[in-house]
């Protein structure tokens, strides 16, 4: 059986490798038991696309499940415009374009293209301030993306000793479970 990486976990892994482990523990729990305000707000921001209410126009694919056998990723896209061939990932608030955001889009693009939907442009859309950030995809980006997917597959929490970033730890919803030296 092939072990697919969930597209939604790529950003979590880059934020903190251990958060991926804790995310898997909480996966079956009710969101309210562990999500902090930013995560709840993000879930609400995705509600329109997740329920197919972003648009009634047939040219938009919304919350469609995608997968790439070649890259071993699976997940959902937010919005893909079949006419303009534009893929958009919606985030509640983007203060900075992180690698995790870009890699999520790369995974979605690669999966869509493998499924027969060409992607000519990609955007991150910050919903709270309605800003759009165009994301480009070049050869070195593919290499970095592939290396990240390999690291996710090889990750073993028992053998992990990720570099500690106190600021990230303070903002992590799993900080109480992790209990690394602060």
Question: In terms of topology, how is this protein built?
Answer:
Layout lengths: L4 E2 L1 H8 L1 H10 L10 H9 L1 H4 L9 E3 L2 E4 L4 E4 L2 E3 L4 E6 L7 H16 L6 E6 L4 E5 L3 H16 L11 H6 L3 H4 L4
Parallel strand pairs: 1-4, 6-7
Antiparallel strand pairs: 2-5, 3-4, 5-6, 7-8
At a glance:
This protein has 182 residues and is of the alpha/beta class. It has helices at residues 8-15, 17-26, 37-45, 47-50, 99-114, 139-154, 166-171, 175-178; strands at residues 5-6, 60-62, 65-68, 73-76, 79-81, 86-91, 121-126, 131-135.
Low-pLDDT runs: none
- The structural class is alpha/beta
Quick check: average pLDDT?
A: 84
Distance between the termini: 39 Å
Provide the spatial order of strands within the biggest beta sheet. 2-5-6-7-8
| Broad CATH class | Alpha Beta
* CATH fold description: Lambda Exonuclease, Chain A
Strand tally, please? 8
Task: Assign a percent range to the helix content.
Answer: 40-55%
Order of helices and strands: EHHHHEEEEEHEEHHH
Main beta sheet strand tally, sense and closure: 5 strands, mixed
């Amino acid at each position: 059986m092939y072990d697919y990486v969930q597209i939604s976990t790529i950003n979590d892994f880059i934020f903190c490798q251990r958060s991926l482990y804790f995310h898997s523990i909480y996966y079956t729990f009710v969101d309210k038991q562990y999500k902090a305000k930013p995560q709840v707000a993000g879930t609400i921001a995705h509600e329109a696309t997740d329920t197919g209410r972003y648009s009634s126009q047939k040219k938009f694919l919304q919350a469609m499940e995608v997968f790439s056998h070649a890259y071993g990723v699976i997940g959902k896209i937010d919005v893909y415009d079949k006419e303009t061939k534009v893929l958009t990932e919606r985030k509640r608030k983007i203060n900075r374009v992180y690698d995790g955001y870009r890699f999520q889009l790369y995974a979605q693009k690669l999966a869509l293209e493998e499924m027969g939907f060409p992607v000519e442009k990609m955007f991150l859309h910050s919903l709270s301030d309605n800003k759009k950030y165009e994301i480009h995809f070049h050869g070195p980006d593919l290499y970095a993306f592939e290396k990240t997917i390999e690291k996710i597959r090889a990750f073993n929490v028992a053998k992990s000793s990720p570099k500690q970033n106190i600021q990230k730890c303070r903002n992590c919803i799993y900080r109480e479970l992790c209990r690394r030296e602060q």
